[in-house]
Amino acid sequence: LPFLIGWSKEMCHGGSAQNSRAPAVSMLIYVILSSISLLTMVMNLMIIISISHFKKLHSPTNSLLLSLAVSDFIVGFLLVFQIILIDGCWFLGDIMCGVYFVLDYIFTSASIGTMVLISVDRYVAVCYPLHYPIKVTQYRVQVCVFLCWTICAFFHCMLLMDSIQQPGLYNTCVGECVVIIDFFGGIADVVCSFVAPVTVIVVLYVRIFVVAVSQAHAMRSQVKGAIGQGFVQRVAAKKSEMKAAKALGVVVLVFLMCVCPYYCVTLESGDAVVSASAAAFVMCLFYVNSFLNPLIYAFFYPWFRNCMKCIVTFQILKPGSSDANMG
């Protein structure tokens, strides 16, 4: 992407941005970003362990959360390499440079693709609740997740084929880490990785919001004259679906807030060189989304808090712990 190319060249030819900062400021930046990277990996690892270990959490929606946690965990790991690029040149070699960018593109796009699948899942659950158990099954969700990851890997490997076949092809000096995507490839990447997914997510959640409001009004009007355990159970189930839609809606909103600046800078920069600090900010904001997702789960989902407590206290190691009810 153009602004990333300009950023890399600026650091290599124009000198490290660290020279213009006080050592204490640079150290603070490193500590903060390193802490975010570590916490991102730890929190998402807890989600991975929780959903994988506890059998009662094996649901289609949680399978999508598991896919998102896996991609976020790897994105948190890749943030370490982004920290290297903030204040200095790349010193891990041309092959690692190519590997880093390929993995970065694949896993960030897989995270975006999973967001789309989550939106579809909530759309069906809220708008077509009677058809949800039939249309959204564990097997179908696993197939969709597999296709999402496969398509992301294939698309970005084709997009970065030159950097894969000839690492360091576009470098102009020692210590530079550059990948170049042609104009049409860049347009395809922006459309497939940003415009199309964001459009689908926004349209689906607008529809979910409209349906949720209408259903809330309907439940309030019916609850006065309705009695019976069956009705109460239906209302409780509907409230549970609404709560899940609200929680995942916050996840999607935070995702849009973190991702949009990255692509806005990309689209506006063209061939211009963007300052290292601006590029660093939007890139780190992009990565911070993977750190925020587990915090949202901890706030909205009691099962995640219970799982964290079980993991931290090592109760997960007890025999039969996988059958425990974490709800």
TrEMBL record:
UniProt-listed Pfam families: 7tm_1
Keyword Transferase belongs to the record: no
Residue ranges occupied by any G-protein coupled receptors family 1 profile domain in the UniProt entry: 43-297
UniProt-recorded Gene Ontology molecular function terms: trace-amine receptor activity
Membrane topology: Multi-pass membrane protein
PROSITE patterns: G_PROTEIN_RECEP_F1_1, G_PROTEIN_RECEP_F1_2
Gene3D superfamilies according to UniProt: Rhodopsin 7-helix transmembrane proteins
Location of the protein in the cell: Cell membrane
Family: Belongs to the G-protein coupled receptor 1 family.
PANTHER family named among the record's database cross-references: HISTAMINE RECEPTOR-RELATED G-PROTEIN COUPLED RECEPTOR, TRACE AMINE ASSOCIATED RECEPTOR 19P-RELATED
Protein's UniProt name: G-protein coupled receptors family 1 profile domain-containing protein
